[in-house]
Design goal:
The complex is a heterodimer of chains A (159) and B (167).
Chain A lengths: L8 E10 L3 H11 L3 E9 L4 H7 L5 E8 L7 E8 L16 E7 L2 H10 L3 E2 L4 E2 L9 E6 L5 E6 L4
Parallel strand pairs in A: 1-4, 5-9
Antiparallel strand pairs in A: 2-3, 3-4, 6-8, 7-8, 8-9
Chain B lengths: L6 E10 L3 H11 L3 E8 L2 H7 L5 E8 L6 E8 L16 E7 L2 H10 L3 E2 L5 E2 L9 E6 L5 E6 L17
Parallel strand pairs in B: 1-4, 5-9
Antiparallel strand pairs in B: 2-3, 3-4, 6-8, 7-8, 8-9
Classes of the chains: A alpha+beta (159), B alpha+beta (167).
Chain lengths: 159, 167
């Protein structure tokens, strides 16, 4: 295609995570992290033709929940739960090739960190304050979601 | 005092890569993301956050045009590495989704440049509120999935809605 459209990226829509149990994952993403559920739908085989073609997977059902990341109105986390398809845990070790994480800003990392631990969630390391460099004073931790996916929480350095 | 412990914004999506050079060809040259920084991450704090003593990484941040969202690529050193499962149905697997202006052209370029996509052509969504959108799952050099969606051109706008369940 020529002209002004150049086959280029022009926006960010969502980050998608496959989970074993959406209800369990909603405790993490909605109740602890505070994302807002905007839709939650289960589709059955005869309604999944696009998904079958796009992803190349043929499940019996797919339950898909979208959660908005505040305060944005157009960035979403999308949770997928499949039934009727062979599943294995994806490697979630951050250093393995093609592993992914997403990172959210928080105002009060200590509070989020405490709430994660109170909810029996794990983190890779403790909440850590960056001591030097351009991010000095920022606080970050890698939280582990119920399926092993890594969600970074990040509090910006004081201005 | 700042507010309580809740998410207050989206910073970036991160992907661990085997070879930064190959991945920049994909994310910068082919998808058109804008490289804004490239640096060595080797610090006590990074080791603590990752809980990976001795690990360091080359990091690249790329801005997604049309947004404030960033993609972070990591190439790790000093630690044993394996391929992560990249099958979409496996739990703990992730992808992210970018808007594009011409899904067919990008699909053709992916094929031409030796990358892949899960479907042989972009798929046009027929029902649901994304109707008219063209979607493909591109496969990055390490097997990670990047969903690309072209919104219908006629009417502006509302397709950012998620009141449907397309992938």
């Amino acid at each position: 295609m020529s002209g002004d459209r150049e086959a280029r990226t022009d926006g960010f829509f969502h980050i998608g995570i496959t989970v074993a149990d959406i209800d369990r994952s909603l405790v993490f993403y909605r109740d602890i992290l505070g994302l807002e559920v905007t839709s939650d739908t289960t589709r059955h085989q005869d309604e999944l033709s696009s998904l079958r073609t796009i992803i190349g997977v043929d499940p019996e059902t797919a339950r898909i929940a979208f959660l908005r990341v505040p305060p944005t109105d157009d960035v979403f986390v999308e949770l997928f739960q499949y039934t009727g398809v062979e599943q294995h845990p994806a490697s979630a070790r951050p250093w393995d090739i093609a592993a992914s994480h997403c990172c959210f800003y928080v105002h009060d990392a200590e509070e989020v960190y405490r709430r994660l631990l109170d909810g029996d969630h794990r983190t890779r390391g403790p909440l850590t304050t960056v001591a030097s460099g351009p991010h000095a004073g920022a606080k970050a931790a890698y939280a582990i979601d119920p399926d092993g996916y890594v969600v970074e929480i990040y509090q910006r350095a004081p201005q | 005092m700042m507010g309580g412990g809740k998410v207050v914004g989206f910073f970036h999506a991160g992907v661990t890569v085997q070879d930064m050079h190959a991945s920049l060809r994909f994310y910068r040259d082919l998808l058109g993301l804008e490289l804004i920084s490239r640096s060595e991450v080797a610090s006590f704090e990074a080791e603590a956050i990752w809980n990976l003593p001795g690990a360091k990484a080359e990091a690249a941040f790329l801005r997604v045009p049309g947004s404030d969202a960033l993609i972070e690529l990591f190439e790790f050193e000093g630690v044993e590495r394996h391929g992560a499962s990249a099958r979409p149905p496996d739990y703990g697997a992730g992808h992210f989704c970018l808007y594009v202006d011409d899904a067919a052209a990008i699909h053709a370029r992916l094929v031409k440049d030796g990358f892949g996509a899960r479907s042989e052509t972009p798929v046009e969504i027929t029902a649901s509120r994304l109707a008219g959108s063209k979607v493909l799952y591109a496969i990055d050099p390490d097997g990670y999935h990047v969903e690309l969606i072209e919104r219908p051109r006629r009417k502006q706008g509302p397709t950012k809605s998620t009141e449907d369940t397309e992938p």
